[in-house]
Amino acid sequence: MTDRARGTPPETEGLRERKQRETRARIAAKGFALFLERGYDQTTLDDIADAAGISRRTFFSYYKSKDDIIIAWQLDGWQAMLAQLRTVSPDLTPLDAVRDMLVQNTAGFESEQMKTIDAMMRSSDTLMARKPAVYLLQEASLYEALCDVWRQPERRTALRMVAMVAIGTMRIAIETWRAEQNTRSAADVLQDAFSNLRTELRAESV
Fold this sequence. Notes:
2 domains; mainly alpha; Homeodomain-like_sf; transcription; Arc Repressor Mutant, subunit A; Tetracycline Repressor, domain 2; 11 helices; DNA-binding transcription factor activity
């Protein structure tokens, strides 16, 4: 998650930036608390603004809609995972490094709060309509992180393909895990999905 969203001040942050960061984080925290308490559709922008101690106008200085609170939270969490990816050894293969990053972070996805938020997102037509755009943003940021680790320019086309395939594999794994109603851990489902991908890639190369 970014410094601004997580509440961790960057080294060069001034007073104005600190106040903005704190306000943004407070809006998100109050919004999430209301979403969990009342439900997403039942929570209004005015509810969030009142809980955060700001005006409706001030809310729009930080977020365009209550949807943006959820989307920003998703992407900030993703950025935290990418920060972890950027620390791996370039001796690993990129696809294995992405797999390991995802598997290592599945515990958070399986928490009761995460399940509640996931169900809330899937119950909202507006959020579901924005889901493909979120996947594209995740793919683009994953590609950037991969390029930060494997810096050879000649590998960039292959790294972009790794990003595309990895996001697709993650999506299928999550859908499989939901369909199985948690009979297996998310980590096991992810491992199997990437193993199946490896098997198919080897078969294609024969």
